[in-house]
Amino acid sequence: MIRAFIAISLPDEVRAALGQSSAVLAEQMPPRSVRWVKPDLLHVTLRFLGDTAVSQLPLIVSELDRIAGQHSSIRLQVDGLGCFPNRKRPRVIWAGLRGDVVAVNALKQDIDAVLEPMGWEREARPFRPHLTLGRVKDGRKLLGVSWGTEVEKMVVPVTAVHLIESQLRPSGPVYTVRHTSYLAR
Question: Strand ranges (DSSP E) for 11-127?
Fold first, then answer.
């Protein structure tokens, strides 16, 4: 078994800019109130698979290749900051994405459709493409935070989806791309 997810990667310059925005935000927050995502680990999760049998990987890879080939390249843009569920009760701090979100949603729906017969139920929550910047440890500590920073509006070209293995370690997760499926040009 491996712990896995399917995601869209980001250009290095987008990761670096988001890392700078996170650093500015971190200065406004009480110490250790948020577990910030390292910039090199930022990605757009399309589907968290969790524990996945290695024997299922060839079928997942085959279906990802097929689906990716049916979708054209997508253009997104980083835009704005927010929190799930909201800023009064933050659990996750995120950077939003706009642009061709309809195409990203269609890609995700197609991925979900092929995963369902393999044993992954469709997710109940609606999909909102975003970039998780940090996970809040205690939202009460963030009451009154000014949230006084913006994220740079940068383009995120989507030309592939990745099957990624996530190994949890005391120092943080380690991600390994197990397969890349390229979208049609």
Answer: 34-36, 44-52, 74-84, 92-99
Closest CA to 35 of 134, 173, 141, 167: 134
Reference 105, options 85, 125, 90; nearest CA is: 125
Query: Does the model's pTM come out above 0.85?
Result: yes
Q: How many domains does the chain have?
A: 1
* DSSP E strands, the chain: 2-8, 34-36, 44-52, 74-84, 92-99, 130-136, 155-158, 160-167, 174-182
Domain that holds residue 177: 2-182
Residues 6+ apart with CB under 8 A from 55: none
- Per-residue DSSP letter, 137: S
Question: How far are the Cα atoms of 81, 96, 184 from residue 42, in angstroms, in the given order?
Answer: 15, 13, 24
Report the CATH number that the domain containing residue 176 is assigned in CATH: 3.90.1140.10
- Per-residue model confidence as pLDDT tens for the chain (185 residues): 999 999 999 999 999 999 999 999 898 888 889 999 999 999 999 999 999 999 999 999 999 999 999 999 999 999 988 889 888 888 999 999 999 999 999 999 999 999 999 999 998 889 999 999 999 998 777 777 777 677 889 999 999 999 999 999 998 899 999 999 999 97
